[in-house]
Design a protein that fits this description.
Largest sheet: 5 strands, parallel
Order of helices and strands: EEEHHEHEEHHEEEHEHHHHH
Helix content: 40-55%
Shape: elongated
Radius of gyration: 26 Å
Distance between the termini: 73 Å
Strand content: 5-15%
Number of strands: 10
Number of helices: 11
Oligomer: single chain
Length: 300
């Protein structure tokens, strides 16, 4: 399943996905036009499907806490209600056309400075959290039926949001009735959370390579760990089953470089197997000869 950024258009330059880039979310927010927002979502979904993209890391639902926010172009406004209504309409347009989307970044991801190094600790009270910062996500989940969420790099207090069961399980799932997958923000460049603690908190998927190698025995070798993995697998598959992802996924033929790599790996693997087989036979013959020599020496 191919998934791409972003809030302003399908975008993954490294993988060759360069869709139409629209005006920023803040410009869309200034229209106060929910119908237009839904049409934007429909356009994003149609282009994603044409490119074989199953899911989008969009829309953005964080708050313009400061005019100097480094990602204000990805977010709608400084108002939780306006942001919630606009992103809910956009999600309806995206999901209604068979593409699943990750509403991001849940939550209090309203500053870029120190965001990626695990050092951004956000302090707030519950009233401000619920009335301003959580509000857009709540509206999107309850009114648009959002099936995917991207958790934030940030810490609420000193707890990484991706490890917060209070947010990911109690509020998101138990209070709001969310069904679906929670993925981390991209942690290739930022190890802001522990995979085992995050998994138990309700963070299902990690946006990195070889995530399974990061898990320890508390997850891989215990009944509780296996149950957490089973629940996460269900959450991950839920949006896929409730979208057109299976039909959208394009299985492109291998290119020359990929074929060359596969052939090289196969030849190298074959040579290694041949080496160890021949080595084993030689060792077996040598042991037999040594045993025969010892028996001959004993007779003499």
């Amino acid at each position: 399943m191919v998934e791409c950024d972003g809030p302003n258009g399908v975008n993954n330059i490294m993988a060759g996905y360069t869709g139409t880039q629209l005006a920023g979310q803040s410009t869309l927010g200034q229209t106060w036009n929910e119908e237009l927002s839904e049409r934007v979502g429909e356009l994003l979904a149609q282009e994603a499907k044409a490119l074989g993209v199953c899911g989008l890391y969009a829309p953005g639902a964080n708050i313009h806490r400061s005019a100097f926010g480094g990602r204000n172009y990805e977010y709608v406004s400084e108002d939780g209600l306006l942001t919630g209504k606009m992103v809910a309409a956009e999600i309806e347009g995206i999901q209604g056309n068979g593409v699943y989307c990750y509403l991001k970044h849940f939550v209090v991801n309203d500053q870029e400075t120190h965001r990626c190094d695990g050092g951004l600790c956000v302090w707030t009270n519950e009233q401000a959290l619920r009335e301003i910062y959580l509000k857009p996500f709540e509206i999107a989940v309850k009114e648009a039926g959002a099936t995917n969420i991207m958790s934030a790099y940030t810490r609420l207090g000193t707890t990484p949001v991706a490890e917060s069961s209070a947010l990911l399980t109690q509020v998101l799932r138990n209070e709001w009735g969310f069904h679906g997958c929670v993925v981390t923000d991209c942690i290739l460049s930022a190890a802001t959370c522990d995979v085992d603690r995050a998994l138990r908190a309700g963070n299902d998927l990690f946006l990195t390579f070889l995530e399974n190698t990061r898990m320890d025995a508390s997850t891989t070798s215990t009944a509780a760990g296996h149950q957490a993995l089973r629940r996460a697998a269900h959450d991950i598959l839920y949006p896929i089953a409730n979208s057109d992802a299976i039909q959208t996924a394009q299985y492109a033929p291998l290119n020359i470089l990929q074929i060359a790599i596969i052939v090289f790996d196969a030849v190298t693997g074959g040579l290694l197997v041949l080496y160890f087989v021949r080595r084993h036979r030689k060792m077996k013959l040598w042991r037999a000869q040594e045993q025969a020599k010892k028996l001959g020496d004993g007779k003499e």
